[in-house]
């Protein structure tokens, strides 16, 4: 991954959304949980991802995909994004960013 938590993007006529767990997370009965619930396993909470940003044709689509990619985890999310030519950035708690091939097209030139 890229060791930089701040990415500058150049967008025109696109939507972008970010979903993450920096703010809405807590501990309940000694277990860490957050607000992004996995419908297939509601008791499982992923913590390998801090946030996911997605660029799409609309902000609504980007928001839906950001949450969906988040639930796939870092590796699964980037793999899915690359297989489907989606612009995705996944950030972890160590300041690393994993960028899909499509997202690299939107990185501002000084960040490439």
Walk me through the structure.
This protein has 112 residues and is of the alpha+beta class. It contains two helices and seven strands, in the order E-E-E-E-E-H-E-E-H. The protein has one domain (2-20, 49-111). Strand 3 (25-28) and strand 4 form a beta hairpin. It is globular and about 45 Å long. It has helices spanning 59-83, 101-104, and strands at residues 2-3, 15-20, 25-28, 31-34, 51-56, 87-91, 96-99. The chain has a five-stranded antiparallel beta sheet with strand order 1-7-6-5-2. A two-stranded antiparallel sheet has the order 3-4. The model has no long low-confidence stretch (mean pLDDT 79). The two termini are 13 Å apart.
What's the structural blueprint in terms of helices and strands?
Blueprint: E1 2-3, E2 15-20, E3 25-28, E4 31-34, E5 51-56, H1 59-83, E6 87-91, E7 96-99, H2 101-104
Antiparallel strand pairs: 1-7, 2-5, 3-4, 5-6, 6-7
